[in-house]
Structures are given as C-alpha cells and as structure tokens.
Amino acid sequence: MQADIYFGSTCRASKKYKKVLSPYDGRVASEVAICSKDDAIKALEVAKNASKETKKTALHVRVNWLLDVAKKLEEQKEDMARTITDEVGKPIQFSRVEVSRAIETIKLSANAMMSVHGETFDTTAMPSGKETLAFYKRVPVGVVLAITPFNFPLNLVAHKIAPALVAGNAVVLKPTSSAPLTAFKFAKLFIQSKFATKDALSVVYSGVGVNDALVKSPIPRVISFTGSVPVGREITSKAGIKKLALELGGNAATYIDRSADIKIAAKQCALGAFINSGQVCISLQRIYVNKEVYYEFAQALKEETKALHVGSPYDEKTFIGPMINTKAVDQAKSWIQNAKDEGATLFYGSTCKELMFAPTIMTDVTEEMNIVCEEVFAPIVSLVKVEDFDEAKTKMNSSPYGLQYSIFSNDMSTCKRAIDELNAGGIVINDIPTLRFDIQPYGGFKDSGIGKEGPKYALEEEYTQIKSVVIC
C-alpha cells in the first residue's frame, strides 16, 4: 500500500515512490512517496491558511475530534499493529502495546486541553499600578512542524500531532520514511474524522530539499523533532526564531547498589536493555554495579537475557526481532569490536543472522571506552564495576546526555541522593530508566534536548503561547 502525500485534507499521489522493505523478511511492506522541495512549500502554505480557521474552532469540537480518532484507532488496533510490525520489525506484542499507548496519548491530549487556561492579575499590587482588568490567555502558536523517527512510528507521532491539533494549530507532519504507512494511516483517521477542521493536518515525506524547505521556512512557529543529536544541531542552526522541542536521545544508565534485590534488578535490566532491539532513546546502555555484587549481578543478567526469545516479530512470544537496517547492524558490530579492542570482554551474545542481532552483554568495560561514551542504539549493554554510588554518580553524570537514569537500591538515603544528584530529565527508583508513562513530562538535560513531551507539558511549553490582556 502506498503512503501518499496529504496537502491538508487533499490526498495526492507522488510522481515517484520508494519501496519500504520489511527488516525481517525483505518483502515489500509499503511504498513511500518521494517528495520535493515544492511539496514541502505547498504543505506549509496549506497549513498557514488552515491555521486561520483552526484557532477559531470551538474547543469541544477539537476535543471530540481527538476522541473520535481514538475510537477509530481502537477499532483498527490489530491492523495498525501489523503495519508497525511489517514496516519496522517490532515484535507484534510490542506493536499492540504501542497502539494502546497512542490511544492513551490522544485521550490524554484531549483531557489536558480542557485544563489549559489563563490567569487574572491584581494590577494594584505595585505602587506604579492602577485598577484594571488584567489577565492572560493561552492561544495556538499557528503552524507546527512535526518530525518523527522509526522506533515508535505511531506513538511518537501521536505525542506531537494530538496536542498540537487540540490546541488549535495546523500541523505539517514529516514521518520517518522507514514507517510511512503507519503515519499515513494514522493521519488519515484525523483527516477523515467528521470533527476535523479542513486542511489542519498535512503529511509529506523525505526528498531532495524537503528538510531545508520545512525547517528554514518562517511559517512553522514550532518545530518538534525526535531523532539524533547531529540532526538536532542542524535543525537548531537553520530554524531561525522559532520554538524548538528537540528529543535527541540519550545514554541511559542505572546503578546496582549492594542493597538491591539482584534477581529483580537483573530481570528488569534485561528488559530495559534489549526491548525493541535496544532501539529506544531510553534503552538501558550502561549498568554501574557495586563491586560487592558485580559478578552475582552479571551472572543473573546473563540468565535473564538467555530467556528472551529472539525470532520472528509475528511470533507472539518473540521479545527481540530484527534491527531496522543493515547500517544499524554494522554499527552494532563495530561497537562490540571496538570495545573488545579496548579491553572489554564479550560476556554473552553478539551473534547475528542478517538483521537479527542477539542481545549482547559486555563486561570489564571502563569509562573511557566509546561503547559507554556514545549512544549505541542497539541490543548491547555494558557492565561497569564501581566502588559505590558516589563513583557511579560521577560516571553517569559525566555523559553529555541526560535523558533518564535509574537506581536499584533498598537504602533510602542512597535513593534520595539519586533523585537530587543524578543530572537527567527523569530519575527512576528501583526500575529501569527505560520506564516511561505518557502522562508524565518527558525530556532530557544537556545534549538530550530541550522541551518536554507528555500532552499537558507539550501544550503549555510548545503548542500554545501566552497573550497578555489589560482592560482599563
């Protein structure tokens, strides 16, 4: 099935399409339109004109719009889950979870918008003031540009377009070309809803000149991007005066304290390190283990990892399916070889057949090795032996990233210190840093980006702006 272009509510075929192959078996999963610079410019102009109407649409209509989409998505849940699995090879059990989360994200966006409001001020509070009616209200920003990645091709789209649309904006969506049909089907639910505002949502895809045309244009007032640091830097350098919401990944870490329940910690760490083949911004990559329990934990983690099923993403029991493409596999192999060359030990895994990369545990890893310095984005986890929490904290905080960290400990004072002293946008106690709830604010410090996802927080920080009013 083709992923066509949407210029607002009008669907148009492209002159050229590119085949998207399943990373599992190589069959054609979909075909994505190859867009041009002119397509990008046209989509922006359509959105600009539509924004004049979207901001005037009654809130109850916008809320019902989202609820209608959530209902339709629930009805098409299995088809959408299959589409995700077809395009990116995500195990079907997790594709279904993603669809369920997207439905929740849409509903959260609708609910959050009901609570977005202004505030009145007493302008006699200062000697220079006088009696007035003064208040502020939140209004839409106008046009939002949303750019999304392959690893959560549905829910990350939902996190951007649902709050943006319910706030009264028009949106131009540029989804990953690795999962275009997922985004196309999702956008279609919004566009064909009986509550939709005409032309409020456009969809374009990659092509020569598309990125620059979208990012450099003065039309979008917000760019919401999830992806790599290099691309985030490029967007920042080209965007001009706009709001930027950049979720740029991380190098998630946890600390295993000597007081931790080793069995529970090992089980959760295996899940956090290898879910979605490690292709998650908050995939557990670094595990700092107290020296007193290092070998016990390493063995427990190995046993838990052995129990994870690697295989067909259509098999209900599969935990780890294929990586997204050959480039990702080659990079994973390179990480492992470089670490071995630097003195690390391959403790478990590293076998690979085509794009099926087995979960891999590296031990004897030191802080200087590239495998812990950079974001790996593969099913590889590294164990680092430390004296105590102080050493672990220093090493964790030394990373240029700061998205989410965690700690496993039954010592309350250590847990409190972790909350206060770990430098990341999210801290998890006694679970993996991969844990995320869509209702929470989500976003990192340092090179992990700026801005927050989570419908309530995205509405307040990105998709609305404050208009101040004084009536004398």
Molecular structure report:
This protein is of the alpha/beta class. It folds into two domains: 2-248 and 448-471, Aldehyde Dehydrogenase, Chain A, domain 1; 252-437, Aldehyde Dehydrogenase, Chain A, domain 2 (3-Layer(aba) Sandwich). It is 39% helix and 23% strand. α12 (370-373) links the parallel β18 and β19. α3 (77-88) crosses α4 (92-113).
Key descriptive features of the protein:
single chain, about 475 residues, alpha/beta, Aldehyde Dehydrogenase, Chain A, domain 1, 2 domains, six-stranded mixed beta sheet, 15 helices, about 25% strand, globular
Topology:
Elements: E1 2-3, E2 5-7, E3 10-12, E4 17-21, E5 28-33, H1 37-54, H2 59-75, H3 77-88, H4 92-113, E6 119-121, E7 133-140, E8 143-147, H5 155-166, E9 170-174, H6 180-191, E10 201-203, H7 210-216, E11 222-226, H8 229-239, E12 243-247, E13 252-256, H9 262-274, E14 284-290, H10 294-306, H11 326-341, E15 345-348, E16 352-353, E17 356-357, E18 360-363, H12 370-373, E19 380-386, H13 389-397, E20 401-402, E21 404-408, H14 412-421, E22 426-429, E23 445-446, E24 449-450, H15 455-463, E25 464-471
Parallel strand pairs: 1-5, 8-9, 8-11, 9-10, 11-12, 13-14, 13-21, 14-19, 18-19, 21-22
Antiparallel strand pairs: 2-3, 4-5, 6-7, 7-25, 12-24, 15-18, 16-17, 20-23
